[in-house]
Amino acid sequence: MDLGISGRRALVCASSRGLGRGCAEALAAEGVHVTLTGRDAESLARTAAEIRKAYPNVEVTEAAGDITTPEGREAALEACPQPDILINNAGGPAPGDFRDWSREDWLKALDALMLGPIELIRRTVDAMIARKFGRIVNITSSSVKSPILFLGLSNGARSGLTGFIAGLSRQTVRHNVTINGLLPGSFETDRLRAMVEARAKAAGSNFDQAIRVLREQNPSGRLGSPEEFGKACAFLCSVHAGFITGQNLLMDGGAHALTP
Asked: What is the DSSP-derived secondary structure letter of residue 113?
């Protein structure tokens, strides 16, 4: 299927690795010019070079910086001031007990996962409306539908973004600008592997055994891949998805239905 977005420009946040990279690669495969962001300039440059090599007909630009900060967002918008496609993405805060979190902890989480994405939308959506085309995808978490124990900072901030988008997305769709959420469950990323390794170590367990159990617990018998996540994102950005807005697509292999 031709997604009809060849030649468009996309700003893909936190895309040097993991799910963000999966989205950037899937869009580049469709002929979309992509701007990548990431905190690690070396990793970002390596990813950009690999995407350029794989898709020589698309422009790949880089904006090194932390997208959860004003400086990082300015660098991203300087590199891609008028994207047709915006993929909001950022790593979540650490788990913990709410009794230990200060006001500063909450504000940092809100800046990263709610206020930062809203700021990027504010800075780009009117130009999308003027051009009569725009696709915004917020990569959030399965916790939006089923809050995850000990991830209260993430649960709260991501749910706040989702609630805000529920209203805005109904206003922009008239202009062919859609806004949706893509909610990952357990995917084979560096972040997940690090979390599993930390849990296994704390429990005195073995990493290989711990991740095998995680795979087996999923109804699909496996974890998701960044590649399939990226392809779902690319479809939401396509010309064929103009009647989909304000939705939250859960990608978790069916795990949500098993939540008590």
From this structure: I
